[in-house]
Specification:
- The structure holds 2 protein chains of 2 kinds.
- Chain A is α/β, with parallel strands linked by helices.
- Chain A is 38% helix and 21% strand.
- Chain A has one domain: P-loop containing nucleotide triphosphate hydrolases (Rossmann fold, 3-Layer(aba) Sandwich), CATH 3.40.50.
- Chain B has one domain: hypothetical protein PF0899 fold (2-Layer Sandwich), CATH 3.30.2320.
- Classes of the chains: A alpha/beta, B alpha+beta.
């Protein structure tokens, strides 16, 4: 007997992701999924952003890695609530992992929850977690061909932060190429030039996060 | 190798469909994989061979239908299938195009063996 199904294979994950998002909305938590290669500077960007945001709103972090709690320790050193998820070999976070992690976390109601995905430019792209938005961190040290080589990651995000721009000159990094590739894959997407190390461009990212949060959660407040 | 997670989800979805149909074994699975889905078909097949044993899909045939994206050209108005997200219009060469679709990842259909009515 033939059964016609036509179901999304990842429908199960999508369903949990929708439940996560409903839960986060009910709790007043704005959620950002941060993606990018190992070493792109996802944790460094968080370390630079968290102290700036924390002055005016609660923040918290879910850290995803194959192994170790090194990233969570870096965040905890800033006195920010953090839960480490070890995927034990899996190359991406999924919605169920985020659901369990959120239960263990002191939720940043009225603020922002950052989910730092496993460092990987391929696998996490198809797995929704229940986030409002995505930010892909791309660093100049990875080379200017990465947008073209890993299209799904850049098609499924809303914003890209080009990190380590203070090193771009030494690496002869072609930023125009990256911007042109992004225009094709992500028309209308946000693009930030940042250096987590020097602080360059962080204000723009911070403003973007505040605005995106405000337009979802603050329409009723005076 | 996220194909392993995808195959796990596929096997679960297929098992649900099989149970709903009152069947007990899956003979064939047809999946649709878009060219821009980020899924490698060889890795998907490898993961299926590794993970299907011990499930109702053990020994089942895996048919993969690969689909392409659609390139809609603003210059000449033509729509053509493409595999590359950076494609120019295959008809007129313009790069003023919109690429859509091609990210499908579906369990399209399955063939199941019904329980024999004689079985107690």
């Amino acid at each position: 007997m033939k059964i016609v199904s036509a179901k999304k294979i990842l429908a199960g994950n999508d369903k949990i992701a929708r439940e996560n998002l409903e839960f986060f909305e009910k709790e007043g938590v704005f959620v950002l999924n941060i993606l990018g290669s190992p070493g792109a500077g996802k944790t460094s960007l968080l370390e630079a952003l968290l102290p700036r945001l924390r002055e005016s709103m609660p923040v918290a972090v879910i850290e995803g890695d194959l192994a170790t709690s090194q990233d969570a320790e870096r965040v905890a050193a800033l006195d920010v609530p953090v839960v480490q998820v070890n995927t034990e070999g899996a190359c991406h976070l999924d919605a169920a992992m985020v659901s369990s992690a959120a239960e263990a976390l002191d939720l940043p109601r009225g603020g922002i929850l950052f989910i730092e995905n496993v460092g990987n430019l391929v696998c996490p792209a198809g797995f929704r977690l229940g986030e409002h938005l995505r930010l892909v961190v791309l660093s100049v040290t990875e080379g200017d061909d990465k947008v073209a080589k890993y299209p799904p990651m850049f098609q499924k995000t809303q914003a890209v932060a080009l990190n380590k721009v203070d090193l771009a000159g030494a690496l002869e990094f072609d930023e125009e190429k990256v911007r042109k590739d992004l225009e094709r894959l992500l028309p209308g997407g946000r693009f930030f030039r940042v250096s987590a190390r020097t602080g360059l461009g962080l204000e723009e990212v911070e403003t973007w996060l505040r605005e995106e949060r405000a337009c979802r959660f603050e329409e009723t407040s005076g | 190798m996220h194909e392993a997670s995808i195959v796990e989800a596929l096997l679960e979805a297929a098992r649900d469909e099989m149970l709903r149909a009152g069947a007990e074994r899956i003979l064939r699975l047809e999946v649709t994989v878009g060219a821009l889905s980020g899924v490698n078909v060889e890795a998907l097949r490898f993961a299926f061979d590794m993970l299907a044993p011990g499930t109702p899909a053990e020994g089942a045939e895996l048919d993969v239908v690969e689909t392409r994206a659609l390139c809609a050209c603003r210059a000449c108005g033509e729509e053509n299938p493409v595999e590359d997200p950076f494609s120019a219009c295959p008809a007129c060469g313009s790069v003023d195009v919109r690429i859509r679709g091609g990210d499908e990842l579906l369990l399209s259909s399955l063939e199941v063996e019904e329980k024999s009515s004689a079985a107690g």
